[in-house]
Design brief:
Layout (H helix, E strand, L loop, with lengths): L2 H15 L1 H5 L4 H7 L12 H13 L22 H11 L2 E6 L2 E7 L12 E8 L5 E11 L1 H19 L4 E2 L15 E6 L3 E10 L4 E10 L3
Antiparallel strand pairs: 1-2, 2-3, 3-4, 4-8, 5-6, 6-7, 7-8
């Protein structure tokens, strides 16, 4: 992925959910460093440091109503534990590792391992946990997609979310934008409930040969 593309996606994440979302993107840490750094970024961050940042990001964006459902690709926000995730990884033969306290990263996750809700294999799956080792933050990244694959993935993810939890709070998925390249191709949607956040971001990076789709699901419960 080009440096410009990762910065653009990082900026979207920062505007949408604060520093926690950005840390789950390739290049996100570099983006934060260029912005003056972040006290919760990097391998030395702990769940105890990240939690206040997550709650601060939630405070100004939380919706008024509870979500009708809180889909998270087969995981349960606030209930799935770190031990549950590691057991799932072993059972599904998925490579996962603790990249820092409170953050597990998995690579090359097949769609079947994420249940019926998944739309294509996931290149990177990141799972963030609170201080009680409960899942509160989940993101996926699919990259190296052709234009048509990016459009299909974006459409499928957006359609699944709308069927489960209704229309987004802001944004609208426009697959036609993925015929463009760079910033002009960027399209996103956001859900903001009192107890749940979700977003989908997609774009075509570099020379247009690489489509990128990112999903993000986060608990908004205190």
């Amino acid at each position: 992925m080009s440096k410009r593309a990762t910065i653009a996606l990082g900026v979207v994440a920062l505007g949408a959910v604060g520093v926690v979302g950005a840390l789950h993107l390739p290049g996100g840490r570099g983006l934060l460093a260029r912005a003056g750094g972040c006290p919760v970024a990097g391998s030395h961050a702990t769940a105890a440091l990240v939690e206040p940042a997550r709650h601060a990001a939630l405070a100004s964006q939380r919706g008024a109503a509870d979500a009708p459902a809180r889909p998270a690709l087969g995981f349960e926000l606030d209930r799935t534990t770190h031990a549950d995730v590691m057991a799932w990884a072993a059972r599904e033969h998925v490579a996962c590792e603790d990249v820092r306290d409170g953050l597990v990263q998995c690579s090359g996750v097949p769609a079947a391992a994420l249940g019926a809700g998944a739309d294509g294999a996931v290149e990177v799956l990141s799972l963030g946990f609170d201080t009680h080792a409960r899942l509160v933050n989940l993101s996926t990244l699919r990259s190296h997609l052709s234009e048509q694959a990016a459009k299909a993935t974006l459409h499928d993810v957006a359609s699944r979310l709308e069927a489960q939890i209704g229309p987004p709070a802001s944004g609208a998925v426009d697959t036609s934008r993925l015929a463009e390249v760079g910033a002009a191709s960027l399209t996103s949607l956001r859900y903001r409930y009192r107890d749940y956040f979700a977003e989908v971001v997609a774009m075509r990076a570099g020379d247009g040969s690489e489509g990128v789709v990112r999903e993000h699901y986060m608990s908004a419960r205190d």
